[in-house]
Amino acid sequence: MNVNYMFSLVAVLVLILLAYAGAGAAGFTTFFGVFIPYLALVIFIGGFVSRVMDWARSPVPYRIPTTAGQQKTLPWISYSYTDNPSSNAGVVLRMILEVLLFRSLFRNTTVEVKDQKLIYRLEKWLWLFALAFHYSFLTVVIRHLRFFLEPTPFFIVWLEKLDGFLQLGLPGIFLSGFVLLAATLLLLARRIFSPKMNYISLASDYFPLILIIAIAATGLLMRYVAKIDVTAAKELTLGLATFRLAVPEGISGLFYIHLFLVCVLLIYFPFSKLMHLGGIFMSPTRNLANNSRAVRHVNPWNYPVDVHTYEEYEDEFREKMVEAGLPVEKGA
Amino acid sequence: MSEMPKPKEVLSGLDHRPPRKGWMDTPVDIRKGMYCYAANPKSVEYLGLPHAREWNPLDDDWKLPENWQEILHKGFKERLDRFRSIKVFMDICVRCGACADKCHFFIGTGDPKNMPVLRAELLRSIYRNDFTLSGKIFGKLSGSRKMTVEVLKEWWYYLFQCSECRRCSVFCPYGIDTAEITIFGRELLNLLGLNIDWIATPVANCYRTGNHLGIQPHAFKDMLDFFVEDLEEMVGVKVEPSFNKKGADILFITPSGDVFADPGTYTAMGYMLLFHYLKERYGFDITWSTYASEGGNFGFFTSHETMKRLNSKMYAEAKRLGVKWILGGECGHMWRVIHQYMETMNGPTDFLEEPVNPITGTKFENARSTKMVHIAEFLADLIKHDKLELDKSRNDHLKVTFHDSCNPARGMGLFEEPRYVIRNVCNHFYDMPANTIREQTFCCGSGSGLNAGEDMELRLTGALPRANAVKYVHEKFGVNMLACVCAIDRAALPTMTEYWVPEVDVTGLSELVANALIVPGQHDRTTDLRGEDLPGREEEEDGE
Q1: Which of A192, B31, B287, B499 could bridge to B248 as Cys pair (CB 3.0-4.6 Å)?
Q2: How many whole angstroms separate alpha carbon A306 and alpha carbon A177?
Q3: Which of A293, A39, A182, A306 is nearest to B310 (CA)?
Q4: pLDDT tens profile B233-246
């Protein structure tokens, strides 16, 4: 039992109840269907932009890339183009690998003591779960654009075909939703059951995970189990997108819970660690070329400092220097 | 070292499972053997740094200035506005745990606060409380807490248990760099006069005399003159190092540790023999400086400003002497400072020329702006163009492995140059396992100013991952020599090997080169630069 994940679990349950009671039972459907979504969007976009602007306001005084490969030096030594980029093109490639393939996480190892020795093993599970989680989430988000666009753009149709390639069941199964739920559950289990992870985890690590699990679970429920009136739901969402507001009757409480949790995620996003989405692009150990000896990097606040000049040095030691036969500026 | 348990006991007692009680509820226990003594107030004062006083980490009362919390808060804010790195790194960690077991201090001690993520959380918890909305609203649930004397002591203890090696930052999916966080944290501690003496006194020495050890100019010359005598005996040639020479081609700067203590001294002798060779064969004129007689920069472990103050001497001296460019010796953090900070801080360098090796004609394009070349780059270029006469069989008694020093590895990317040089001067070279070298190299356990005597347990346990890998190649290939390109390594690794792998000795790169170098006019050379007989060659001497 751990207060951090219990708190997060309770918080998500309260949010679910709030939406169910508010939109389902009390019938505040306009509030939950229109007002909260717009508010969430405004806070998400405003918050995200202002956080990134805030980071950008602080300068990068030194060029401090983490060099994870051979530097570019002598022409006959081949160097690591992406792990130790010397050019901006290399940096772009390094960032692409980092953002799209989680390059650094892929290096992960784990250590244990065995027979008086340290043994290291490759540990790719975190990388795999993380990749599965992020890509399935992205797929789900893109698929959901169909609710805000009419007619449905071709790329969503393609994506749905790809996502539903198993062609199982009716409605057809989209893999992404299930992968999303599984990956987040595994990531949560890792946090709870690995002693090391449990030790370093905060409530703010459990909360977004449990929130996303709840979002995925309610989504899957609506599609496959307690099926909702999709036409009515789309009327509402399309109304939001086109500012022709409509709150049709007969949308189940489950839908409002799902929508509300998504809104909470959007509102929570800019104030949380989820901002790593923007932060990764701003990380000076990754987004700079390792060329600081070839091209001078300028620090905008570089200020003059007190130094001990050669003159002061010679003044103190002149006699000894002359005696030792060391050259001096001023004859002793 | 007498209080240090046996290696076997350390390994059997090693437990990486965290305690049940949360880290915020576990107060710091400042333990003997794991910390360094407080800064001598005279050293702090000499540099004009604030709040110099006598204090003892073991005392309850650290004699903090009355408004210490205000000083810290203001210092924190100023640095958030100056360093995007700090701001981003405070905000975006998701505690994925990838860094947790990448730190040599965590691997060697099992202390959970040595997991890089928690080291950073020690500061982040205060950041959230002082600078974020969620921290203010949700308090401890959001991982925030108020600054107290207890927290300050925890900062001090664990920020001086990080060697700024950047290994964790290689594995972090966002590139969060604990070195950056430690540098920043130590800078804050220095606002309250809370440095350690192993850093503060070398810094004061360096400011005054030009080097960390406080060697005055005449004594510096004397020490090199000793090496001249040694070299004359062991090689049979009289080398003539020049000092503070105006109009020399090149200024050479290296850590002062190498003129002071074994086995660094043999590296220094290696430089001198090499420079003699280049002078005799090619007329290449290299001078040493007594004013800029320190390559290392313990200011880097104090604050950005102190780093800049010490570093300024390199360019100032190069300008005064009118040299063309600067050659840098073997040192770890020195090269991070030169490579990633120097010209930004103390440039531009219009008074120097773009570095060209006149012997080979090679333009060092990668150093065209900073105008400082690493000795391994320089040597690799000379060897590639066949400009050094070498007899690599003179190193045949050695089975060599190479320790990548943290800073040249992860703050520069110097991997192939030293290996190329070693392969050309030694017949037996074996790399350690892949996840312990190059960008994944392990610290010697004593970097960033922690190589004192009183924190020996910290140093030896922190050196465990490096020692473990050395032991592996020792057992598998019979490796008996650990080569490195760092003066702190040369000071620290012999202590490490003595404890963990006593059969292995430590050398600098330039010592290996000088051993193999065929110098015009040399005698039979039946010994290496250490005066030790070379197996198979001593008989010739007997026959005479």
Answers
A1: B287
A2: 61
A3: A306
A4: 999 999 999 999 99
For the segment B63-98, what is each residue's pLDDT rounded down to a tens digit? 999 999 999 999 999 999 999 999 999 999 999 999
Pick the CATH number of A3-67+136-287+294-301 from 3.40.50.970, 1.20.950.20, 3.30.365.10, 1.20.1290.10: 1.20.950.20
Question: Given an 8 Å threshold on Cβ–Cβ distance, is B143 in contact with A200?
Answer: no
Q: Give dist(CA B184, CA A62) in Å, integer.
A: 13
> Using CA atoms, how far apart are residues B316 and A64, in angstroms rounded to an integer?
24
Residues of A in contact with B82 (CB under 8 A): 58-59, 61, 301
Q: In angstroms, what separates the C-alpha of B86 from chain A's closest C-alpha? A: 9
- Measured between alpha carbons, how far is B76 from B126 in angstroms, rounded to an integer? 10
Across B310-314, average pLDDT: 98
- Which chain B positions have a beta carbon within 8 Å of A106's beta carbon? none
| DSSP string across B23-45 | GGGS-----TTSS-PBPPHHHHH
Three-class SS state of B321: helix
Structure confidence at residue B543 (pLDDT): 44
Give the minimum alpha-carbon distance from A110 to chain B in angstroms, rounded to a whole number. Answer: 7
Pairing of strands A109-114, A117-122: antiparallel
What is the DSSP annotation of B131-152? H-HHHHHHGGGGT-----HHHH
> What amino acid occupies position B481?
M
Q: Are B395 and B509 in contact (CB under 8 A)?
A: no
Q: Tokens 């004609």, residue?
A: B361
Distance (Å, whole) CA B263 – CA B507: 6
Interatomic CA distance for residues B350 and B328, integer angstroms: 19
Residue A49 has pLDDT above 80, yes or no: yes
If we measure between CA atoms, which residue out of B357, B334, B510 comes closest to residue B422?
B510
Summarised one tens digit per residue, pLDDT across range B442-495 is: 999 999 999 999 999 999 999 999 999 999 999 999 999 999 999 999 999 999
Separation of alpha carbons A59 and B85, rounded Å: 9
Contact B337, B311 (CB under 8 A): yes
From the CB of residue A243, how many other CB atoms can be counted at a distance below 10 Å? 7
Q: Could you tell me if B281 and B385 are in contact, meaning their C-beta atoms sit under 8 angstroms apart?
A: no
Q: Domain ranges in chain B?
A: 7-30+50-194, 203-516
Backbone phi, psi, residue B122, to 5°: -55, -40
pLDDT surpassing 50 at residue B544: no
CA distance A145 to chain B (A): 27
Domain ranges of chain A: 3-67+136-287+294-301, 305-332
Compute the Cα dihedral for A134, B137, B20, B164 and give only its sign: positive
Of A4, A74, A316, the CB nearest to B381: A74
Of A71, A275, A326, Cβ closest to residue B414: A71
Instruction: For residue A296, give the nearest of B87, B369, B435 by CB distance.
Output: B369
**DSSP assignment string, B89-113:** HHH------TTGGG-HHHHHH--GG
Specify the range with the lowest mean pLDDT, choosing from A24-38, B343-357, B410-424: A24-38
Length of chain B counted residue by residue: 544
> Residue A202 and residue B419: Cα distance in Å, rounded?
44
ipTM: 0.95
The string of DSSP letters for B346-381 reads H---TTSPPPB-TTT--B-GGGTTT-EEEHHHHHHH
Residue B93 identity: C
The answer to whether the CB of B357 falls within 8 A of the CB of B324 is no
Confidence of residue A171 (pLDDT cuts 50, 70, 90): confident
- Residues 76-105 on A with a CB inside 8 Å of B are 76-77, 79-80, 83-84, 86, 98, 102, 104-105
Asked if B289 and B314 touch (Cβ cutoff 8 Å), the reply is no
